[in-house]
Structure prediction request, 737 residues.
Amino acid sequence: MSHPSKHLLAIEGLEPPHIADLLDLAESYALLNRSGKTQRDLLKGRTLINLFFEDSTRTRTSFELAGKRLGADVINMSVSTSSVNKGETLLDTASTLNAMQCDLLVIRHAQSGAPALLSQKVDAAVINAGDGTHEHPTQALLDALTIRRHKGRLEGLIVAICGDIAHSRVARSNIHLLGTMGARVRIVGPPTLIPADAARLGVEVFTDMRAGLKDADVVMMLRLQRERMAAGGLVPSAREFFRFYGLDAEKLALAKPDSIVMHPGPMNRGVEIDSAIADHPTRSVIGEQVEMGVACRMAVLDILARRLPRNR
Amino acid sequence: MRDLLITNARLLDPASGLDGPGALLVRGGVVAELGPGLVAPEGAETLDAGGACLAPGLVDLRANLGEPGAEHRETIASAALAAAAGGITTLCVLPDTDPALDDPALLSFVIRRGEATGSVALLPYGAATAGCAGKELAELGLLREAGAIAFTDGARAIGSARMMRIALSYARAFGAFVVQHPEEPSLAGGGAATEGELATRLGLPGIPPAAEAMMVARDVALARLTGGHVHFAHLSTGAALDLVRAAKAEGLRVTCDTAPPYFDLNETAIGDYRTYAKLSPPLRTEADRQAVVAALADGTIDAIASDHQPRDADDKRLPFAQAEAGGAGLATLLGVTLARVHGGDLSMLAALALLTCRPAALLGLPVGRLAVGAPADLVLFHAERGWKVEAGKLPGKAQNSPFDGRALEGRVLGTWKAGRRVFGA
Prediction:
């Protein structure tokens, strides 16, 4: 089943075969990457621009590597947030990009919907690398691939996504992807960090982390932004958060004995996750998530490139 | 000016309950005669309405214009064009301009600019607080003398309970009401859409619907405390309307209006980050839309205002949370209201009352009715003739209609201000 759109703006709206195709292709790229035979001519002559309005080393590097492994010309454009106090720059940038004849545009932006807006104005295929508190589709793909490699499936698994759900684009994309693929998704966090009407997204909501982790196959921790704990914030302190919603050995013991622990990074050790868990040799798959990130982004670039016009 | 006899019309006067075929004679800017069987006086111009509806010119209780301060969005002259095309002959304008209308001289300036249009009576609200900043009481008495119809801080809620108490209490001395933008700022601040499933899916910061109801509850209590008259602008939730219904039953001086988006659209209009549907208050759930329709039908709502908020492309072509809230509303006020008549929710006379005699009565104005001796402010419209709202082709400068693409039945054919034709061939 071919990808339904020219762009990848969100997981919401994708159907199981679309997601399965992407994951299968990513799996093959993961194997290829491990074999060392990664350079291909698939994107030769294509231009990929990484347009990052928010700092991100991990995601930007991952897309850069993915593009280069497929033979694309990769350009990084970091737009400092200070010069983007108003979004006009976004559409100004769009016309610049059109003039540069960019084929694939990876965008990260602090505003929900910014990639969608840009996709209406640019000729390139747009890949959302994280927009505000909306979605982060490639993160959900790499998380799903990592889970599938460990559990052999997604359907029927109990996945507990824990922490600051309200402000997390990672959580939203994962909720949509895992739910679409038949997993049982739980979200766990203090009520002030659970978004309104979250249950309507097809998840079970837990404010008691112990109950939320019970019998989970996958425990997915989210990063808690420091500003959520600032004065007037949504949680009183880091130590209180860690006490009730941080992942430590005691709470993890309630999940299935073979459960895996994930985190999209960067981690706040001692706030949402105990270092001993983050670095656990068998339970933590955090390093593998990064590896799968490159493979998934290769798969996304590959699939979207198939819909690009052959010659510009 | 020659006498004008409009014949073969469906005369609609909600104030008297008149709905019947007939003619109307305009002489010297006022209605001289109306009813069936009128004969044109010698030398009179006659116009065959072809059976179309002839109603009082619309009284728009609230519009924001760009002038002074944001003339790139709309000027008084461009708004007057849009108003005439929409059948509006009395336009009440908000004071939260730049500078704010908190000084009698500024108010006089706006009134003069309105008179210069010759097509619409422009009636300004005075600022309730200096600079519409919510900190110090404006000179309500002097503003009232200069022509302020009532007081408000426009799109800014008067957040301090103490400030609102003072305004309500003091305005009583000058026989004026205070209009509140009912949204608790500490709860709604930073929000871009109604809090709930859709905002959660879109990743947009939410405004809980309770932010409206709690401000209404607070100000109802202040109306009870002060004996003042509070008017709530653009109510959009069932919970707030229930509070107004109860306050009216109690006999408090509490009135309210709503605007077409809140009974014609629901929050799904913002799907895919459509910034033209970003409004303040935000579009609500379907249940709240239905509650607004019910409150129109049962009389809880006193008026339908256009809530015109001109925005230009640069204000709207932004990521949703950064885009400015507000929709153009002058040209679509009648058509969208008539959709509720066609939909069977309101009678024609009840709908027109909300656009004419009821807001006029609220303001104590002699307009909004077809009566002998009343100003000949008239709108002639075809209730069933269809048209499509197209941003870019609307009259006036502001093109930011939340109804872009909407097919409407109900087309204005002509507008008269004090007997002078200001719209239509």
User: Anything to note?
Assistant: The mean pLDDT of chain A is 92. Strands of chain A lie at 47-52, 73-78, 104-109, 125-131, 158-162, 184-188, 204-206, 218-221, 260-262. The CA atoms of residues 242 and 271 of chain A lie 5 Å apart.
